[in-house]
C-alpha cells in the first residue's frame, strides 16, 4: 500500500522521483486524491516551511522540496479537479512597481501552493492598477505585495490606496526584507509576513477569518 509517510519524506528530501512514484501508486490503489495531498504533499511542505522559519534549512532545500511537490502535483491536480476538491482560496501576488526582485516572492508562492492555495503570479514590476485589475478578474480573496528595495516600499502604500479607491474587499498581505509589521500597520495593510512559511499562516488568517 502507498505509504503517505514515505511521500511526506520524499517532499522533505526533495526526492521528486519517489514523490511521483508514490503519488502514482496511491492513485492506482484508489486512495482519495485529497488524502494524498494532505497526508503526503502538504504535510511534507509544512515541515519544510517550519524548518525554514527556524533556520534549520535554507533556500536551496526549500526549492528542491517545492520541485518534488510540483512534479507530484502535476499528476494529482487533474484528479483533484475531478474529485471537486476546492483550493482554500485565490491570492494574486506580485513584486511592486519598480522592483524586479522575485526570489523571495517565488518562495512565498511555492509555500502557498504547497498549502493548498490557488495563486496567481503577477510577476515583478506590478503597478497598483494591475494588482486591482487582477484581483477583480480572479475574484481573489487576498493580494500579496513583495518589495525588496526601500525605494519601492512606498509603492505598497499606493497599492493599498488603489484597493481602497476601487472599493473591493481584498485583504492585503505585505512582505520583503525591508518591510516590517510597523510599516504594514502604517500603510493600512491587513497582514505582514517576515518569511514564506509565515506567509502561509497569515494568508490562512486573512482568507478564512
Ligand atoms: Co538587489 N538589492 N538590486 N538584486 N539584491 C538587494 C535587495 C540589496 C539589499 C543589496 C544590497 O545593497 N545589500 C539592495 C537594496 C538596498 C535597499 O533598498 N536599501 C539591492 C539593490 C540596491 C539593487 C539594485 C538597485 C542594484 C543596482 O542596480 N544598483 C537593483 C534593483 C533592480 C530593481 O529591482 N529595479 C538590484 C538588482 C538585483 C538583481 C537583479 C541582480 C538580483 C535580483 C534577482 C531576482 O530576484 N530575480 C538582486 C539580488 C539577488 C539581491 C540580493 C542579493 C538577494 C535578494 C534575495 O533574493 N534574497 C539582496 C541582498 C540580500 O538580501 N542579501 C539585494 C533571498 C530571498 C529568499 O529573500 O527576498 O527577502 P527575500 O524574501 C524572503 C522574505 O523577505 C519574505 O519571504 C522570503 C522567503 O523567506 N518575503 C515575503 C518576500 N516577499 C514576501 C511577500 C510576502 C510575505 C513574505 O507576502 C506577500
Quick rundown:
With 209 residues, this protein is of the alpha/beta class.
Secondary structure elements and pairings:
Elements: H1 4-12, H2 16-28, H3 33-53, H4 59-82, E1 90-96, H5 103-114, E2 118-126, H6 128-137, E3 142-146, H7 153-166, E4 171-175, H8 181-187, E5 191-192, H9 196-208
Parallel strand pairs: 1-2, 1-3, 3-4, 4-5
Helix pairs in contact: 1-2, 1-3, 2-4, 3-4, 4-5, 5-9, 6-7
List keywords for this structure.
binds CO-5-methoxybenzimidazolylcobamide; single chain; globular; 5 strands; 2 domains; 209 residues; Methyltransferase, Methionine Synthase (B12-binding Domains), Chain A, domain 1; five-stranded parallel β-sheet; alpha/beta; Rossmann fold
Number of helices, where a helix is a run of at least 4 consecutive DSSP H or I residues: 9
Shape: globular
The sequence of SSEs as H and E is HHHHEHEHEHEHEH
Question: Gap between N and C termini, in Å?
Answer: 38 Å
Task: Kindly report the spatial arrangement of strands forming the biggest sheet.
Answer: 2-1-3-4-5
CATH class of the largest domain: Alpha Beta
Q: What fraction, in percent, of the residue positions are helical?
A: 55-70%
User: According to CATH, what is the topology of the largest domain?
Assistant: Rossmann fold
Major β-sheet annotation: 5 strands, parallel
The low-pLDDT segments are: none
Which cofactor or ligand species appear?
Answer: CO-5-methoxybenzimidazolylcobamide
> What percent of residues are in strands?
5-15%
Annotated CATH homologous superfamily of the largest domain: Cobalamin-binding domain
**Beta strands, count:** 5
The CATH architecture of the largest domain: 3-Layer(aba) Sandwich
Oligomer: single chain
Mean pLDDT: 94
Counting helices, strands and paired strands, the structural category is alpha/beta
Total domain modules:
2
- Work out the radius of gyration: 17 Å
Amino acid at each position: 500500500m502507498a505509504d503517505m509517510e514515505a511521500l511526506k519524506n520524499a517532499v522533505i528530501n526533495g526526492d521528486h522521483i519517489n514523490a511521483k512514484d508514490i503519488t502514482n501508486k496511491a492513485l492506482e490503489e484508489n486512495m482519495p486524491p485529497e488524502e494524498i495531498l494532505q497526508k503526503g504533499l502538504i504535510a511534507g511542505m509544512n515541515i519544510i516551511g517550519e524548518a525554514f522559519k527556524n533556520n534549520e534549512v535554507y533556500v536551496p532545500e526549500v526549492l528542491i522540496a517545492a520541485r518534488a511537490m510540483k512534479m507530484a502535483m502535476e499528476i494529482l491536480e487533474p484528479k483533484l479537479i475531478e474529485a471537486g476538491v476546492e483550493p482554500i482560496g485565490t491570492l494574486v501576488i506580485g513584486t511592486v512597481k519598480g522592483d524586479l526582485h522575485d526570489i523571495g516572492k517565488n518562495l512565498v508562492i511555492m509555500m502557498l501552493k504547497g498549502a493548498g492555495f490557488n495563486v496567481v503570479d503577477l510577476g515583478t514590476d506590478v503597478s497598483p492598477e494591475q494588482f486591482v485589475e487582477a484581483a477583480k478578474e480572479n475574484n481573489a480573496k487576498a493580494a500579496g505585495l513583495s518589495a525588496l528595495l526601500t525605494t519601492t516600499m512606498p509603492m505598497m502604500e499606493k497599492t493599498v490606496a488603489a484597493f481602497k479607491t476601487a472599493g473591493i474587499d481584498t485583504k492585503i498581505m505585505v512582505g520583503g526584507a525591508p518591510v516590517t509589521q510597523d510599516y504594514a500597520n502604517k500603510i493600512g495593510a491587513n497582514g505582514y509576513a517576515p518569511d514564506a512559511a509565515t506567509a502561509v499562516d497569515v494568508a490562512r488568517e486573512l482568507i478564512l477569518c
